[in-house]
Structure formats: structure tokens, C-alpha cells
Automatic annotation (TrEMBL):
GO CC annotation terms, alphabetical: cytosol
Upper classification of the organism: Bacteria, Pseudomonadati, Bacteroidota, Flavobacteriia, Flavobacteriales
Family designation: Belongs to the acyl coenzyme A hydrolase family.
Stretches assigned to the HotDog ACOT-type domain: 7-119
Originating organism: Psychroflexus salis
A family per Pfam: 4HBT
Residues spanning the signal sequence: none
Sorted UniProt keywords: Hydrolase
GO molecular function: long-chain fatty acyl-CoA hydrolase activity
Protein name (database record): Acyl-CoA thioesterase
GO biological process, one term: acyl-CoA metabolic process
Hydrolase found in the keyword field: yes
Length: 169
């Protein structure tokens, strides 16, 4: 099957933080950021697979930095690795300083999407060919994360998680 680069799936969503989207500290509500990331990730997965895609799992979210009311928030999503029918999407979240325009990394997350047919059955997706050092690093670690996610979901026995076991040997 054809190979695609992570760049081909790159999706960038930029939007403001409005009052209705904040918590009592006037920072962006976590669930709103999760929804924005889910949207960006689903577009990236769709661009990679050109199929209907569904969120299978949210593997990791780090809310490292609060995002204040009025911020300009950019969510960047790229497929970091594809497997048979699933794709790992890596998300980087940036906020932009109003005066300097300088971007600061606020958060990151990793989602898993699955390509499906009209009946919701998983279908194969193209392979991926990482180009940059960051893309290659993310690609390398993705199998370990997939195994961890499957173990936590009760879909893989820990003894079969070869990549995870290798970490402790
Ligand atoms: C995601 C879904 C299609 C998987 O279906 P399934 O019957 O478990 O199919 P499979 O077991 O063949 O898994 C399909 C792929 O998903 C991967 N997968 C399933 N659960 C996963 C998890 N928790 N973490 C990581 N990958 C997962 C499998 O490893 C497999 O990947 P591969 O084919 O690339 O090796 C199905 O569970 C579903 O439709 N869920 C609902 C999706 C949805 O509605 N999302 C929005 C929530 S509001």
C-alpha cells in the first residue's frame, strides 16, 4: 500500500478563547480543548486515510499550561504513525503572544483514530514515511504507546506487549 508523509496529514486549527469556553479562573475549559484537539485529529486522520474515521482512544493529554481568556490558540495535528487500520495522531497546542506574535507551546496530546467503512468496520490505511527527526522519534515510540493503550483497555495481555516489556529488560 502507498506511503504518505506526516506532513500530508498536517492540520492546523486556530481560534480564540471566548468567555463561554472558560472555567472560573478565566482559563480555557479542559473539555473545550479536548474537543478542539479531537476535531483537528479527525481531520488529520481523514487526510491520511481518505476514509471515515472515528476516535478509538485518547492516549495522552498533558495540560501543562493554562490558556487564558482571549488567547489565540493553535492546534496542530499530524499522523505520527499508521498501523493496519488505526492511526496515532500527535497534537501540539500553541498560544500566541498578542504583542510579539511569539508562539509558546501550551499542551500536547496523542489520540488514536480508526478508519472505518460505511458499516463502521475497520479498514486498512496507508503506511507512513516520517521525514524529520521529530517525526521519526514520534514514529519510533508509537508502537509502545499503542501497546500501552491496548493493555490499559484490556485488549492486549501485558505478556504480549513486547515493546513495553523491552523497556524493562
Ligand atoms: C474504534 C473501533 C472502530 C475499533 O473497533 P474494534 O472492533 O475494536 O476493532 P479492532 O479490534 O479490529 O481494532 C481496530 C484497530 O483499532 C485499534 N484499537 C482499538 N482500541 C484501541 C485502543 N484503546 N487504543 C489503541 N488502539 C486501539 C486496534 O489495535 C486496531 O488497530 P490496527 O488495525 O491498526 O492494528 C470501535 O471500537 C468503535 O467504533 N468505537 C466507537 C468509536 C466512536 O464512536 N468514537 C467516538 C466516541 S464519542
Amino acid at each position: 500500500m502507498e506511503l504518505k508523509t506526516p506532513e500530508e496529514s498536517k492540520t492546523t486549527l486556530t481560534d480564540l478563547v471566548l468567555p463561554s469556553e472558560t472555567n472560573p479562573l478565566n482559563n480555557l475549559f479542559g473539555g473545550e480543548l479536548l474537543a478542539r484537539m479531537d476535531r483537528a485529529a479527525s481531520i488529520a486522520a481523514r487526510r491520511h486515510s481518505r476514509r471515515i474515521v472515528v476516535t478509538a482512544s485518547v492516549n495522552h493529554v498533558a495540560f501543562n499550561k493554562a490558556v487564558p481568556l482571549g488567547s489565540v490558540v493553535t492546534v496542530e495535528a499530524k499522523v505520527s504513525r499508521s498501523f493496519k487500520t488505526s492511526m496515532e495522531i500527535f497534537l501540539d497546542v500553541w498560544i500566541e503572544d498578542r504583542e510579539s506574535g511569539r508562539r509558546t507551546k501550551a499542551n500536547e496530546a496523542i489520540y488514536t483514530f480508526v478508519a472505518v467503512d460505511d458499516m463502521g468496520n475497520p479498514v486498512p490505511v496507508p503506511g507512513i514515511d516520517p521525514q524529520t527527526k521529530l517525526e521519526k522519534d514520534r514514529f519510533e515510540a508509537a508502537l509502545r504507546r499503542k501497546q500501552l493503550s491496548l493493555v490499559l483497555a484490556g485488549k492486549l495481555k501485558p505478556k504480549d506487549a513486547t515493546e513495553l516489556k523491552a523497556l524493562f529488560e
